[in-house]
Design brief:
Blueprint: E1 7-10, H1 12-18, H2 28-37, E2 42-45, H3 56-69, E3 74-79, H4 83-92, E4 96-99, H5 120-131, E5 135-140, H6 146-152, E6 157-161, H7 163-166, H8 172-191, E7 195-199, H9 207-213, E8 219-222, H10 224-233, H11 235-245
Parallel strand pairs: 1-2, 1-8, 2-3, 3-4, 4-5, 5-6, 6-7, 7-8
Length: 249
């Protein structure tokens, strides 16, 4: 029997491709279903204010899909805790929300929260989400000082930004240094009583060294690397490839 998956497939890129035409394909819900049928633990989406990829309607359709067909799977919403986004969280009631410090025009989440700034609004958003029975995660840079600050705000998990590690695909020495930072942050999060997630530019090649040193990471949200892999191997096969890299198959 296979282990419970860590893999949450981010389908933003599927929505971006669909939005190039006024057509319903590729289907965000259809491919999300394929991923979950193949063993992914759930789906992650980042609905931005301009709906340039995921639309609000996608969020509710994915929520309905999981409730109706995949009750043991999870939906994670990622976004900046603006009033509009918080309203969406309240209405959709995902299993998890990942708060990221993004400017609306950013192409992707590329840094964690700066906890040295005023985080009172973030603390309020965390409290509201927990009132709605939504698990709260905060996006953090690989910095061992960050997890304790996230815990003090009321977060239940962090997601470590692994982009700098993924960017070192052609520089093993720098990748090793970045990996050290991620592992130190993950260990600090565990010591602070937080669940540990990871995400950004993770691939079947760089996941095994990470999990060899931090096997307690509970979730990996993967979009770009997964989609690139799926263009070659297919959605279901890529779920198996990533789960194999995670030591689950």
């Amino acid at each position: 029997m296979s282990a419970v998956s860590r893999l949450s497939v981010n389908v933003n890129a599927i929505a971006m491709l669909r939005n190039r035409r006024d057509l319903p394909w590729p289907s965000v819900t259809g491919l999300a279903a394929l991923a979950m049928e193949a063993g992914a633990k759930g789906i992650t989406v980042h609905p931005r204010p301009d709906e340039r990829h995921i639309r609000k309607t996608d969020v509710f359709e994915l929520s309905e899909l999981i409730e109706d067909r995949f009750p043991n799977k999870e939906l994670c919403l990622e976004g900046y805790p603006s009033p509009d986004f918080l309203k969406l969280v309240e209405e959709a009631r995902p299993d998890q929300v990942l708060f990221v410090p993004d400017d609306p025009q950013q192409t992707t989440s590329d840094h964690g929260w700066d906890f040295s700034k005023d985080t009172s609004a973030l603390a309020d958003a965390i409290a509201m989400s927990k009132d709605w029975a939504v698990t709260v995660s905060l996006f953090c840079d690989p910095d061992p000082a960050a997890p304790e600050k996230a815990a003090n705000l009321g977060a239940e998990r962090i997601e470590i930004y692994t982009g700098p590690y993924g960017a070192c695909y052609d520089d093993p020495a720098q990748a090793a240094r970045e990996l050290d930072r991620i592992v130190a942050t993950a260990e600090a999060a565990r010591a602070a009583g937080l669940g540990v997630n990871a995400g950004h530019d993770l691939t079947v090649e760089n996941i095994p060294p990470l999990l060899a040193r931090a096997p307690f990471i509970r979730e990996m949200s993967i979009g770009h690397g997964f989609t690139a892999d799926a263009l070659i191997h297919g959605f279901a096969a890529s779920v198996a490839r990533f789960r194999t890299a995670m030591g689950e198959l």
